[in-house]
Amino acid sequence: MPAKVVSEVHKKHVEARQARLKKELDSVLGSVDRLGLEIGCGHGHWLTDFAASQNSGFFLGVDLIGDRIERANRKAQRAELDNIAFIKAEASELIELLPRGVSIEAVYLLFPDPWPKKRHWKNRLVNPAFLERLADRCSRDCSLYFRTDHEEYFDWALDTLESVDSWSLIDGAEWPFERETVFQAKAQSYQSLVAERA
Q: Distance between CA atoms of 119 and 133, rounded to whole angstroms?
């Protein structure tokens, strides 16, 4: 197949995927204007329990793996929660297509893939370009919560957050909700940080 044809096929595929995601976001969010966002929500254990503990607010979990999202949505339905939803999407695309009337008031990154090999560092979610795009969709008082069991990635996240103007690290900030995640249970130790939209 010629490269031009492949490119057109890919473009149409991306457009169709983005149209589906935009429609799903419009349906799920309805009149929501502020939300908490967990990126890489897995099976939704942490976010579902967190949403259940809150008297107000709406929570959205996003993950790339469809089976995880299906299980997370079933979990939220069993708990009879109406303040939470889970969507299969790539984080950057979801942020780009989030309805303009919606702002993010908290972001949760719990044990994201550290991409430990140097040639894969470009895939790390905590990078300047992503943080800037994220900040553009966040409210002024938005907090970013990051936790990892990978020491080198933690140092990377600290350095990266210090290098961008859109986020400020907060010393001594409290973690919003403690509930052991699958990865946390396996970790010998972990580190956490909190940043605030500058």
A: 23
List residues with catalytic annotation.
Answer: 113
**pLDDT bracket for residue 28 (50, 70, 90):** very high
Q: What pLDDT digit, counting tens, does each position of 39-78 carry?
A: 999 999 999 999 999 989 999 999 999 999 999 999 999 9
The three-state secondary structure class of 79 is coil
**Residue 6 pLDDT exceeds 70:** no
CATH code where residue 87 lies = 3.40.50.150
Total domains, the chain: 1
Domain range holding 98?
A: 3-197
Instruction: Give pTM, 2 decimals.
Output: 0.91
